[in-house]
């Protein structure tokens, strides 16, 4: 499978390894604070969308845009960068895509508010 293996930010955070499915989101009552009532300092979303077009049809993407995450990682987008729908992109974010060789298969997308120091593609 194609993936963005790791991403390294100036603050010293390093994200890498296997992606996980999206946490169960509370669509009815979204929040911008922690359980302690403090504001989030870094908000990351990782979501196995199983086809980005299916997410657009289900209208679940509005929740992510409302939450305004710092980093958004999509797995299994099932489309190449050139075919990625405009309405699924996050404006003002740095974007990174890694597409499978076979059209309509696998693929990942990453959107980040802060430009990373480095991005590594593939699995080594």
Structure at a glance:
The protein is of the alpha+beta class. The chain has helices at residues 52-58, 61-67, and strands spanning 4-8, 14-16, 44-48, 71-75, 94-98, 108-112, 118-121.
Q: Key features?
A:
124 residues, alpha+beta, 4-stranded mixed β-sheet, 3-stranded antiparallel β-sheet, 2 helices, 11% helix
Pattern of helices and strands: EEEHHEEEE
Biggest beta sheet attributes: 4 strands, mixed
Approximate helicity band: 10-25%
Counted by DSSP, the helix tally is 2
**Which strand order spans the largest sheet, edge to edge or round the barrel?**
3-4-6-5
Strand content: 25-35%
Total count of strands: 7
Global structural class: alpha+beta
Unreliable segments (pLDDT under 50, ≥5 consecutive)? 8-30
Oligomer classification: single chain
What is the straight-line distance between the termini? Answer: 12 Å
Mean pLDDT: 76
Whole-angstrom Rg: 14 Å
Question: What is the overall shape?
Answer: globular
Structure description:
With 124 residues, the chain is α+β, with helices and mostly antiparallel strands. It contains two helices and seven strands, in the order βββααββββ. It has helices at residues 52-58, 61-67; strands at residues 4-8, 14-16, 44-48, 71-75, 94-98, 108-112, 118-121. The strands form two sheets. Strands 3-4-6-5 form a four-stranded mixed sheet, with no helix packed on it. The chain has a three-stranded antiparallel sheet with strand order 2-1-7, with no helix packed on it. Mean pLDDT is 76; it is low at 8-30.
């Amino acid at each position: 499978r194609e993936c963005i293996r790791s991403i390294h930010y100036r603050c010293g955070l390093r994200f890498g390894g296997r992606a996980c499915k999206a946490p169960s989101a509370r669509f009815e009552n979204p929040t911008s604070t922690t359980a302690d009532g403090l504001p989030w300092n870094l908000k990351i979303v990782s979501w196995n969308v199983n086809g980005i077009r299916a997410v657009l049809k289900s209208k679940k993407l509005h929740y992510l845009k409302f939450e305004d995450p710092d980093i958004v990682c999509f797995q299994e987008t099932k489309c190449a960068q050139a075919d990625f729908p405009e309405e699924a992109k996050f404006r003002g974010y740095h974007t990174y895509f890694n597409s499978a060789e076979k059209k309509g298969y696998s693929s990942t997308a990453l959107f980040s508010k802060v430009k990373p120091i480095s991005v590594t593609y593939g699995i080594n």
